[in-house]
Please model this.
Amino acid sequence: MTEFSVENIYYLGPDGSNAHSAMLKFLEKCNIKAKNLKPQKDIRRAIDTLKQDYSSVCILPIENSIQGIVRETIDNLLKNEDLKIRIQGEISLPIKHLLLAKTADKNEIKKIFSHPQALAQCSNNLYKKYKDVELHDLSSTSYAAQKVAESEDCSYAAIANETCAKMFNLNILDNDLNDETDNKTRFYLLGREEIKYKNDNGKTAIILSTKNKSGALCDVLQIFKKHDINLTYIDSRPSKRKLGEYLFFMELDGFEGDYKIKMALEELMNYVDFIKILGSFCIYE
Amino acid sequence: MTEFSVENIYYLGPDGSNAHSAMLKFLEKCNIKAKNLKPQKDIRRAIDTLKQDYSSVCILPIENSIQGIVRETIDNLLKNEDLKIRIQGEISLPIKHLLLAKTADKNEIKKIFSHPQALAQCSNNLYKKYKDVELHDLSSTSYAAQKVAESEDCSYAAIANETCAKMFNLNILDNDLNDETDNKTRFYLLGREEIKYKNDNGKTAIILSTKNKSGALCDVLQIFKKHDINLTYIDSRPSKRKLGEYLFFMELDGFEGDYKIKMALEELMNYVDFIKILGSFCIYE
Model:
């Protein structure tokens, strides 16, 4: 497999986060050699930094199987006017939430800290098992684990992953917190240059707005159906101009260069007000 | 207009929140007389409380023009197995975010507190105008204003509405924080008994899963198109069973009892694995 060298690789930090694990998986699966690993504070900063940096890549979460689309990623991809930045690859990562604390006694816990998405993905179990415990949002699961490790208050606990338990030397008090067993997050790899190594498992991601008439979305989906293209994902995002005006984010099975995708995209032009191809890329298992 | 009496009205508190203003608007528009106004801590608790309480109603946010759908509302409506609880009405509320503080000097501000949705709806302006200020999530905008009012640290500010500025006697430092000018939130009124007063401006909300085959969503949309039904909203939610399995939340123009909606829903049965009608209701301007 050809090696793919980049200057920097940007991802949502800090170390120990799920995005950090996703980054390591991308390095391995796509055989990427990065000079520097650069954790970023948020999604907007990660994309903004990539815009200034021509020989680097960036890894961002796009969808979680419980929570749905990561709106900040879609909204920032849409706003990004640098058409050379495209999605270059996708991986999925299983997400396992653990309750971590200094104490070994669950009954001592009075406050639980974590990222809002992690708290949301455990909300049923937290409601059942820890109804009287206070929940607190923090900017990352890994920062929550660090806060618990550094605090002198033994009634604090964090929801984070196994890497964090090891990094901060915390006890695992509960490993059955995930509300749903199949909790996975998909991540995109973004960059300017196409990754040379490819498999046949490909997707094309687009964002479009339909013409403002009844049945317009139906017309768009009919084009994909006619060309026998499988729509693997659809989500609506507000246009942010007016309540009731929407953009549609879609993922299609197949590469942009495939004959049927080419034909469909061409035909689509008569039915949309706006369309942007975010990328055509491989899925790395 | 007939008066509509209920025991309790539940809404997302605390007082001063946008949900509180929405509740007051519903009382007026639908001529509801409620014995008790009962603010709730979160969406799940609001629906859970309504389930136990047969002569009450509940008000929940469903969509914001910038952020999109309120996932917790949809997911809890879907999970709710009490089929008698239905959406009874909808209103929209303009959302205006203000920067509130004890000090009158913007340059003193070092920390800004607010609800994550409010922070997200101002994120461009915050990034431009207050780049070095720390942002902190709290559970409500009104609680953020209270925290700022009660703190002795004059470098604290909150993003909240005008009601909060008055309630907590805070200065308005910035009234140009909304990233988008048309920032509105739609709210649903939920209850068991149908509101007697009606206008002609009606909608039907459904949630469905399509059969697992290529083009299945297209088939569903074609039925609406054939019956000349306008789809005003569509959003996908994860089935929470498997990454890649989705449910679709849809809003249609017209009432459930309208002939064309009846026909379409009947025809739909052959194309869906699951369907739930969340309600058929008026929009109150």
Summary: Chain B has a mean pLDDT of 91. DSSP finds nine helices and 15 strands in chain B.
